[in-house]
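Notes from hallway chat w/ T.B., transcribed later so I don't forget. T.B. wanted the structure written out for a chain they're using in a teaching module, and asked if we could keep both sequence and structure tokens in one place. Agreed to drop them here.
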Amino acid sequence: MYQLDNSQDLNDAWSKAKYSMEVFAGMLSEDDKMNIYYMSDYDTDMKADARIQLDGDENKEKNIATIHNTKTDAGYTSFDSVRKAMSDLEQSSADEKWLVILTDGKMQNYQDGNRTNLNSKQIQDYLNQKPEEISVIFLGMGPEAEAIQTDAGKNIFYQEAKTTKDILDAVTEIGLQVFNSNRLEVDKRKQSVSFDVPMKELLVFAQGEGVEIQSITDQDGQTYQPDGDPVEVRYSDVDAPNHPDNKPDTSLQGQMALFTGPFEPGSMTINAENAKTLEVYYKPYVDIAVGLYDDSGREVTGADALEGGNYTLSFGLVNAITGEQIEKTDLLGDISYEAVVNNNGKELSGIYGNNDQIKLEEGDLSIDVTAHYLDYNTAHTQFDYEVMTDKAVTFELVHNPDYSVTTRRIQTEDGTAAAEEPIELQALLDGQKPTAEQWALMELPAIRQVSDSKAKLEDWCIEKTQTPGLYTFYPQLPESGPTGGEYYEPVEYQVDYNQAVGPAAWQGRINETLHLTDSRAFWQVHPWRTLFGVLTGLILLFLLLYRLKKRLPKSLKDQPQVTIADKKNYGKTATEYGQVERHGKWTPIVAETATIHLLPKTMSGVSPMNVKAVKDGILVTNAGAFKDMKIGNKTMEDFIQHKNKGRKKYANDLILSGTETLKLDKEDKTYTFQLNKGQTNKKSGRGGRSSGGRNSKNSSRSSSRSASNRTRLANRSTSSSRASQSRPRSAGRSGTSHNSRRGR
């Protein structure tokens, strides 16, 4: 690597190879890994590990610096390094595996202990035995390097580079091939590129002293920044300590910057300063579209329209951003397709290409397609379908409980809610239980009540279970509860299944009987009848009890009369009216009570009398307040003894018939009360409480008379009989007016 073209000067070809490896490191994607094996390491150790191991998800600048700063003595070209790298690749789980061999001379075989050179045939024979998934690129640098033959069928490729320019061009081509990148043509004057397919990535590689990549700008003026800071690649001053006088190529300087799209088709301007050479590598952003055409030439546009039969395959690349079909373009080159078809668990024989025919049966369908374009680039996708045919759906009742209706729910005879013990119905497709895949496609059947019934049910609750084909369902009551006035009875219902599965129809029906009884009591089923009966009974009971009610005698006036004799005014008398406040008129059984105001409410001096209706008359419940009162000509004590003679009940109580005359003597007045004389309030009815308006008028009349009488009595001693002839118009005003006149 330090003597090329038989020159005696130590022209450092190794610096060019090392610079190329820095370029490789800059092209690594985040899912890529690169191991570098130094052949001189295997002069003494045939199983040495890779000197450098790089991971694409690491910082690109760090990866490049790792290569740049690694130094080693120049040595022999041991083929054991190739064997070790091949062995490590076989153990790798990568999707793509590449072995790149860079050498400038003969390769030695140390396995026999001697440094015997390997010829081209021996190298070719070894590479021909490699695993199919490993691809090899052999780069022979200089006139002394061994040459092998390219065998694209076995993924073996040979590149030859005799001059420095050839080495750089070859390394660039290797990078494009290994990293599935492609080069866009750069307009050097405008520093721009154009593309008619969407781009996933654009990698800009600018070379020159002091070069600086800044950004890219599309045709609409939108500017994009690189994914990270551009990384530097640069020649090494000293690569091998045992060759300190090497002459590296100092023109090897550059920057690499990755721009991640997606970018729509168009043009991009590269904003880079001091760039002597400018290269842009691209990765298209495309997907594969698969078309299926039936015998009539109609395209099946979706997986839900696929049924068994013959179809023609059609493949094409589409814009991964918009889904639009991509027309033929040089940026994709010649495109070929390979498809593996798996139908119903069986792989169909052969590799299918564009316009090939396939015959499909019901079941799963998988089409695994790979598109090859631009020699080394591929796109891969897989399409999954379900092929369907018409199915007859039948049903079998697995569990059919007996239900009963309560006031709040439908339940089984042991009290379990219908939701916890539903009806179980097994569905069959063409007489067979559905597969898990078919069960995933099946929908819920429709359930409707067939027989007429005034007792209403809500919509049925139906669910799919984990067991293929098994449905569970149960009837429900309306939210308002069971229907009133009607008993629930067994009803006939229908289960109807009708589903379009792609172009296929799955249909079936069954009629069954819901075992349903009503466990509600009569009053729960007929609440209004029950309520009417109860109300009627209560009314009759009320009337009966009302007839048995003890009432105050009819002779008791609403406004009993009282005669007041004024002892100081020569026994002059005045007539007034009290008031009876009745209680419990409409309460059945309970005896009627009343409060008898013996005097008008405007007058004081006599307590109200509390009375209660008893069988023989009026029971005075506060008789103690009237112990000085005479009844007729008897004292109260004599009256009670005489009246209650022979009584067991109420023997010591005051009981009046209502026709007695009651007298009460005070110091200045004598009161004579007659309960059966006076006035009756017509509007209130017998025994009722006086209405507000009538009471107000009567009270006013009584008050007026009382005031008038008081006026007459007060002025009797100083005036003539004119005072008694005065007729006041109101209680307060009349008395005041006449008093004033009497004063004059």
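Follow-up for T.B.: The chain has six domains: 13-181, 183-281, 286-387, 392-523, 559-690, 693-744. Might be a good example for the class.
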